[in-house]
């Protein structure tokens, strides 16, 4: 088990390496069997060779800054609430993308902390429609052509098609379902909550697995913000008095029923 400081330093090392364009340091942050899902919903990148291609596609050509709002350390996972600001190399385009990043951290071959899985939760379609083309048609097309060309060179047609999967997901209907669940939670309406959750769906609050009744006793008068849907998941920030949490709702089979709920809050 790693300390809070060790876990945070591992997560924070990624943007340092990205800003410095230090490919070898960035790759060394990951376990040998690591996976990167960025954005969640696209086809993942698994193993050192795939991660190197990911770096060459999305990091190497660009100037990237991480503006972090809040970090949560829960068990051996770090969850970051942030905006990534990217100036796309060779173009006039700069975009700021709101997202959450989850770093699942394990012991590497030398016993040092390494990232086993990285999940970046952000919305691809709104980024394309609201930001890429909001700065003018010529600027947007230039950036889109640059990204597409580099992706095809580095990852081939299969990789480009895998990335495009992120255009499809549970979307607005799952966001509504998640917010209905939270409204029912605030009202203590467990019967309504059960209608929105699949039978035997796991409910995890930090290191506790809870029934819906027990969840109601632990969480009340909650607020939420920054709701993001990507792939089959909806992620949002929860506030309970001064405590801040991040909730991940899974929708494995339907956008109207929750198949799992994981709530991350500080435990370290």
From TrEMBL:
Q: Which residues form the signal peptide?
A: none
For the SnoaL-like domain, which residue ranges apply?
14-87
Pfam families per the UniProt record, alphabetical: SnoaL_2 (PF12680)
Instruction: Enumerate the SUPFAM superfamilies for this protein.
Output: NTF2-like
- Identify this protein by name: SnoaL-like domain-containing protein
Tell me what organism the protein belongs to. Answer: Oceanococcus atlanticus
Taxonomic path = Bacteria, Pseudomonadati, Pseudomonadota, Gammaproteobacteria, Chromatiales
């Amino acid at each position: 088990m790693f300390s809070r400081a060790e876990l945070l330093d591992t997560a924070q090392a990624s943007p340092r390496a990205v800003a410095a364009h230090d490919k070898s340091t960035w790759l060394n942050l990951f376990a040998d069997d690591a996976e990167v899902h960025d954005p969640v919903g696209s086809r993942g990148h698994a193993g050192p060779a795939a991660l190197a291609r990911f770096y060459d596609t999305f990091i190497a050509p660009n100037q990237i800054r991480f503006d972090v709002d809040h970090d949560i350390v829960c068990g051996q996972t770090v969850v970051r609430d942030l905006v990534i600001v990217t100036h796309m190399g060779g173009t006039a385009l700069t975009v700021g993308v709101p997202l959450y990043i989850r770093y699942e951290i394990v012991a590497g071959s030398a016993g040092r902390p390494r990232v086993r899985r990285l999940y970046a939760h952000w919305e691809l379609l709104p980024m394309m429609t609201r930001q890429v083309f909001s700065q003018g048609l010529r600027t947007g097309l230039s950036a889109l052509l640059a990204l597409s060309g580099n992706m095809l060179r580095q990852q081939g047609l299969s990789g480009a098609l895998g990335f495009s999967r992120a255009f499809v997901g549970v979307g607005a209907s799952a966001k509504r379902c998640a917010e209905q669940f939270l409204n029912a939670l605030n009202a203590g309406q467990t019967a309504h909550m059960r209608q929105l959750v699949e039978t035997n769906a796991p409910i995890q609050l930090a290191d506790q697995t809870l029934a819906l009744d027990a969840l109601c006793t632990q969480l009340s008068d909650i607020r939420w913000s920054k709701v993001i849907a990507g792939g089959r998941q909806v992620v949002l920030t929860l506030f309970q008095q001064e405590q801040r949490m991040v909730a991940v709702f899974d929708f494995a089979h339907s956008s109207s029923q929750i198949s799992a709920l994981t709530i991350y809050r500080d435990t370290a």
